[in-house]
Design goal:
The chain is α+β, with helices and mostly antiparallel strands. The chain contains four helices and five strands, in the order βααβββαβα. It has a single domain (13-144), classed as Gcn5-related N-acetyltransferase (GNAT) (Aminopeptidase). It has helices spanning 23-36, 43-54, 106-121, 135-144, and strands at 13-17, 60-67, 70-80, 89-97, 125-127. The protein is globular and about 55 Å long.
Length: 156
């Protein structure tokens, strides 16, 4: 008698807006993003950020990737005015997918969800930054966007 092994199919990937009850799943993703870039954000700023992302009066939003009931990725964006267009721009500020959940299409799905939201609000542009050493993410970014050639400068 032989035993037949049946591989279990992975749970479907879903992208949706952040909800208040997502705090416990959102925060480890936020912390993972900050850790990746070696950044430290005070707890009160994290609390404020979460509240802003949920507030419809804010020009910010967060979309999450969920699989099997767990949050595996986040993308956080800021809508802002531009001196170059009447329509707003959408700045994709933070994108993070759990390391063990990568290569499942979550990053691409999150970016596509941002594109859809930007279209919905009439944004003239979606743009983002990444560190030049972020080679893995840059493979995806090169597939879904055009590199502008601009170099960022900042104070502080």
């Amino acid at each position: 008698m032989s035993v037949l092994s049946i591989a279990k199919e992975p749970a479907a990937l879903a992208v949706r807006d952040l909800r208040a009850e997502d705090r416990a799943g959102w925060e480890p993703l936020w912390r993972g993003y900050l850790d990746f870039y070696g950044a430290v954000v005070a707890d009160d700023v994290t609390d404020l950020t979460f509240r802003r992302l949920l507030d419809p009066a804010e020009d910010m939003f967060c979309i999450v990737a969920e699989q099997g009931g767990d949050l595996i990725g986040i993308v956080q964006c800021v809508l802002h005015r531009s001196t170059w267009t009447a329509a707003p721009y959408c700045y994709l500020q933070d994108l993070f997918v759990l390391p063990d959940a990568r290569d499942r299409g979550a990053g691409r799905a999150l970016i596509e969800a941002v594109y859809a939201r930007a279209d919905q609000v009439g944004a003239a542009r979606v743009y983002w930054l990444t560190h030049e050493t972020n080679a893995t993410a840059r493979v995806l970014y090169d597939a879904v966007a055009v590199r502008s050639g601009f170099i960022q400068y900042r104070r502080g």
